[in-house]
Write a structure and sequence with these properties.
ABC_transporter-like_ATP-bd, 9 helices, six-stranded mixed sheet, alpha/beta, P-loop_NTPase, four-stranded antiparallel sheet, Rossmann fold, globular
Length: 254
């Protein structure tokens, strides 16, 4: 398990300030829910941690290692994996092949080798076995040899989670994993996230609009508005914070 420390992170796009000196810490093994209205800066922060963006200022450290010094194409190799709001799977590949592709950052065969099964036979067998085990953990083993195309959205969300876990991350970034899911699928996903956190020893940063899910599984919650942190604490503390109520309901903070 690993600690993530975000310290004074700012991000400017021209004259727009998307992040303004944001700081918080996720303890080892914790699930942190990042919440806020649309435009609060959640996705920008998420993209800074995953190295899609380079912040204007600040520091983002995982177990003391400065992630902002790591090139984007090497971030997975430093223990960071993510899912996406819009699925980034390969529809024509099977569930097993999609999961194997997630291990490219640590495999000698590289990205194309993971997908096309090019490389040493022993390494391929080990990779396939690990990928199949992940599919079993997530209840997808029966679909291992079927293409990802035409499967339900909830099923594909679990497949994307399997692919992220194949990279053996220390920090898992979940970008609106409940988007588009039914109530029963959200409940199932919540249980799955807690289970994989425990089984794989993960620290998790979760960006999600589904408040019941965030409050139900998070150890800590960070609330944002206009690029700034407006509250941080347990779900109960953040839920009742006047600044959070104001941000969501438009009422003046007490």
């Amino acid at each position: 398990m690993s600690e993530l420390r975000v310290d004074g992170v700012s991000m400017h796009f021209g004259g727009i300030t998307a992040l303004d000196g944001l700081s918080f810490t996720i303890g080892s093994g914790q699930i942190c829910g990042l919440i806020g209205p649309n435009g609060a800066g959640k996705t920008t922060l998420f993209n800074c941690v995953s190295r899609i963006y380079q912040p204007s200022a600040g520091s983002i450290c995982l177990d003391g290692e400065e992630l902002l010094d790591v090139p984007a194409h090497r971030i997975a190799g430093h223990g960071v994996a993510r899912t996406f709001q819009n699925l980034g799977l390969f529809p024509s590949l099977t569930f097993l092949e999609n999961t194997m592709a997630g291990a490219h950052a640590r495999g000698r065969g590289g990205y194309l080798g993971s997908i096309l099964r090019i490389g040493q036979a022993r390494a391929e067998r080990e990779l396939r076995a690990e990928a199949f085990e992940l599919l079993e953990v997530l209840g997808l083993a029966d679909l291992a040899f079927l293409p990802a195309a035409h499967q339900s959205f909830g099923t594909l969300k679990r497949l994307e989670l399997a692919r992220a876990l194949a990279a053996r991350p220390r920090l898992l970034l979940l970008d609106e994993p409940a988007g588009g899911l039914t109530h029963s699928e959200v409940d199932e996903l919540s249980s799955t996230i807690r289970r994989v956190r425990d089984e794989f020893g993960l620290t998790i940063l979760l960006v999600e609009h589904h408040m019941a899910m965030v409050m139900g599984i998070s150890d800590i919650v960070v609330a944002m508005n206009f690029g700034e942190k407006i509250a941080e604490g347990t779900p109960a503390e953040v839920r009742s914070d006047p600044a959070v109520v104001s941000a969501y309901l438009g009422a003046p903070a007490a």
